Amino acid sequence: MFDSIVTFLTQGLVNASWPMLVLYFIVVSQFTIFSVTLYLHRSQAHRGVDFHPVLAHFFRFWAWFSTAMVTREWVAIHRKHHAKCETAEDPHSPQFFGIKKVLLDGVDLYRKARRDSSITEKYGRGTPDDWIERNIYARHPEVGPTLMLFLAFALFGLWGVVIWACQMIWIPFMAAGVVNGLGHWWGYRNVESDDTSTNLTPWGLIIGGEELHNNHHAFPSSAKFALRRFEFDIGWAMICMFEKIGMAKVMRVAPSLDIRDDVNAPDYDTVKALLTHKFQVMTDYFRGVTAPTLRDEAARAGVSIKELPRRMRKALSSGGRWLDSDARERLGSWVSQRPAMVTVMEYRRRLHELMEGRNGEAMLEGLKQWCREAEASGNRALQEFANRIKGYRLAQAA
Fold it and tell me: Given 32, 92, 96, 335, which is the most exposed site by the fewest CB atoms within 10 A?
């Protein structure tokens, strides 16, 4: 009897080998990651993709079973993150809570937000509200992981408990900590969005494609997170696979930007492209105008471009928005002493204000004037950008 108990505790019902235990952990963890990124994030929060009811319910069940997450609560908190990004009302911004808090204790921030019923009421609309959601998933969220613990213990004995504990740590850390924390603190940026979001790596393999966080913030409703040719989004690959077998329908992807040659003046196609790709436009401006002017200024002065700290060089792309008050003042003082930089930063401000407008006709007239004045500025980089921007349009769908 004692030997049987010991055997069960060490081997469980299946007596799995080490490779089998590792495979189980990888599989169940990936199921959870896909449930979050495909269902909760891309489908429910942003409506970028619709899944077949059977597949959608599997994802909903698995999110509850493996993490205790309730669809409506997760969606509401994430939508508020986008609506109030990098403000004091953002549920998990490293700008306000600090990177250490969000990275290591992101789950606590999530729990704090889910206790605020006003968030759920305001941002959680349109999520499942059937009998099973109201009476099981939402009413008893803790039952899911408890059942998963019993299953893991029955299958693998005490090793199942260890695997379950690792998953309970791994998923919240990667989803709530790494994406919400490092994804707004460290990495590269394709697009100068109105926040501090970054892409952690170009290849979204481990967190279901969520590594491409800056791309997502640029086009939140897009079901595809990869924007550049060298980037890979495994979540998008899964969506394409499900679409081929009739289990998914893609609703939205980020539109491509096209550039026409020999356009004499901006038109409504230009306006539409700028409004859709306003973050990309500001990225192009930084790379095509601000950065070259900065290099020219350094060359004329006979100094290294590194005279300006890297943090401040990067801050030129946002007008110093994310610097603290002292650093922003130092950057402003540095720019004010260099007339060419004053010019390009002023034109950047004006272009940004144009794209924040809501009147298409007024924007078109303002853009025409902006281009005329930029071409007459005497700044070669600014002239070339003005000529280029006139040809912007949305690429035709294939």
Answer: 96
- Strand 203-204 versus strand 232-233 pairing type: parallel
CA gap 39, 58 in Å, rounded = 10
* DSSP run (H or E) holding 249: strand 248-250
Q: Which amino acid is at 138?
A: A
Which pTM value belongs to this model? 0.91
In this structure, which amino acid lies at residue 392? Y
The per-residue pLDDT for 95 is 85
- Judged against a pLDDT cut of 90, whether residue 382 lies above it is answered with yes
| CA distances, 47 to each of 43, 61, 250, 291 (Å) | 5, 19, 9, 37
Q: Tell how strand 392-394 and strand 257-259 pair up.
A: antiparallel
- Cα separation, 302 vs 159, whole angstroms: 65
CA 112 to chain centre: 21
DSSP state of 182: G
How would you class 158 by CB atoms within 10 Å of its CB: exposed for 0-12, middle for 13-18, buried for 19 or more?
A: middle
